[in-house]
Design brief:
There is one protein chain. This protein is an alpha/beta fold and 208 residues long. It has one domain: Rossmann fold, CATH 3.40.50.150. The protein has 7 helices and 7 strands, in the order αααββαββαβααββ. It has helices at 2-12, 16-20, 25-35, 70-82, 120-130, 148-163, 172-178, and strands spanning 42-46, 62-67, 88-92, 105-111, 131-142, 183-189, 195-201. Strands 3-2-1-4-5-7-6 form a 7-stranded mixed beta sheet. α5 (120-130) links the parallel β4 and β5. The protein starts with a helix and ends in a 7-residue tail after the last strand. The structure holds S-adenosylmethionine. Residues 2, 5, 9, 20, 47-49, 52, 67-69, 72, 94-96, 111-113, 116-117 line the site of S-adenosylmethionine.
């Protein structure tokens, strides 16, 4: 499945910013505001893709961005150079197997990623592990349009979306409960309020 996603995103990389840049910009900007980043914060962005969020971070903040797709990361690296973001470090990595020590980051964000990865619970558990106790975890996702017919249609086409690497339909609240991640706040964003940002608090500490 990871190989399939890698292949798909090596193609999306060419058109990703054109297709998903402007349309999801409001969500990204709101998420960054919600993160309320302090100068000393260490940030992990999981599935950073082409780095559309990079110019939105306050300058000088230490950010690590990881992604499965080298082609997507290549675009992120171009943005890092363009905006001279010397404190940004980008690595190819699988979100379900993060190469970081326990309790490393103050804040972790996964934007349009949790519904894409094959085993979201593994990814959430990894995010929890590398996030410090009392650190914040932000999940930005397409959540669906509040209309009975559209939502029924979305459930039907969910397997196709999943195959195309564009995320699948599932109950994110249930998943967060399963991962024991308490929700602190939620905000609807983007056109038709179709996406939501969920802020969770990591109330567990992994052994150092
Ligand atoms: C829909 S894009 C979102 C990109 C970016 N976060 C954004 O908001 O524009 C999903 C990203 O997740 C990455 N991805 C998918 N599975 C992954 C995994 N297991 N580990 C790390 N990244 C993954 C893809 O390569 C892709 O860049």
């Amino acid at each position: 499945m990871s190989d399939h996603l890698k292949k798909i995103y090596s193609l999306y990389a060419y058109v990703y910013d054109t297709l998903f840049g402007k349309i999801f910009e409001h969500g990204r900007c709101t998420a960054l505001k919600m993160m309320d980043i302090e100068p000393h914060d260490t940030i992990l962005e999981v599935g950073i893709g082409t780095g559309l969020s990079l110019p939105l971070y306050p300058k000088g903040i230490s950010i690590i961005g990881i992604d499965l797709s080298e082609e997507m990361l290549l675009r992120a690296k171009t943005k890092k150079m363009k905006y001279t973001l010397n404190n940004v470090h980008l690595s190819t990595m699988d979100a379900s197997l993060l190469a970081f020590r326990n309790n490393t980051f103050d804040k972790v964000i996964a934007s349009h990623v949790i519904t894409v990865v094959p085993e979201p619970i593994h990814t959430l558990n990894e995010i929890k592990r590398v996030c410090k106790k009392e650190g914040d975890i932000f999940i930005l996702n397409y959540a669906g349009i509040d209309n009975q017919f559209i939502s029924r249609f979305e459930k039907i086409i969910s397997p196709i979306r999943d195959k195309l690497g564009l995320g699948k339909h599932f109950d994110l609240d249930l998943l967060l409960k399963e991962a024991s991640l308490p929700v602190m706040s939620k905000q609807q964003v983007n056109i038709f309020n179709a996406c939501q940002i969920i802020k969770c608090r990591n109330n567990t500490s992994s052994e150092a």
